[in-house]
Design goal:
Blueprint (H helix, E strand, L loop, with lengths): L1 H9 L17 E2 L2 E2 L24 E5 L5 E3 L1 H6 L4 E8 L5 E10 H5 L10 E6 L4 E5 H6 L3 E6 L2 E2 L9 E3 L12 E7 L27
Parallel strand pairs: 3-12
Antiparallel strand pairs: 1-2, 3-4, 5-6, 6-9, 7-8, 7-12, 9-10, 9-11
The structure holds ligand MTE and molybdenum atom (MO).
Length: 211
Amino acid sequence: MLLLLAAVACGPGRAPTTTPLKPVEVREYQGEKLGSVTDFRENSIKGPPTVDSVSYRLNIFGQVRQPRALGYRAAIDEHRHYSRVVTIYCVEGWQVKILWEGLRVMDLLEPAGIDSSARTVIFHAADGYTTSLPLDFIREHNLLLAYKMNDAPLRPERGFPFMLVAEDKWGYKWARWVTGIELSDDAGYKGYWERRGYANDGDLKQRFYED
Ligand SMILES: Nc1nc2c(c(=O)[nH]1)N[C@H]1C(S)=C(S)[C@@H](COP(=O)(O)O)O[C@H]1N2
Ligand SMILES: [Mo]
């Protein structure tokens, strides 16, 4: 009955139109105050790259039986969604608490068939940035690859389409604009900042600079 009324109200042959509004970020979640997506300092190595969501592919490769290349929508639609409040801390001394929504990295990797020799997960980004984490850490902590911050899609300057939520690790482990996830047996792999002296374990409880 309701359906019928709606159809009549719209008139014959006239599809109801929706006007998309700009996404509004949430600033409170389950009683917790959140930071804003604008509280971040832009500190990327080359400035934010623009990623086209239509031609975009998330490549899962390296020590896997069957490499995967997922489109933006497919990656989101074909995996379970998780959310979690996590604070990002940059070595420069700022921090932001954000409600993240994303896919479990393990859910993306497992269908590719991870070789038993794989130890390290290397994240590749659209700006040429790389960073890595042990496969066991990603598995044990259920790390997420986020596509939303504070319930709004990741902004281009914040890491669209995907940013790693590297809980308990310094900001330089939180790869933005992720285009590739590589499985490797190289436990000593060093990413962009790690090659320049930042600690490879990136543990928040440890010093971030190696001397
Ligand atoms: N692709 C890419 N990811 C990156 C970086 C970068 O330069 N390129 N910088 C890292 C550092 S040092 C930090 S602190 C966070 C900061 O994220 P924000 O610029 O959105 O605040 O992104 C991390 N991820
Ligand atoms: Mo950082």
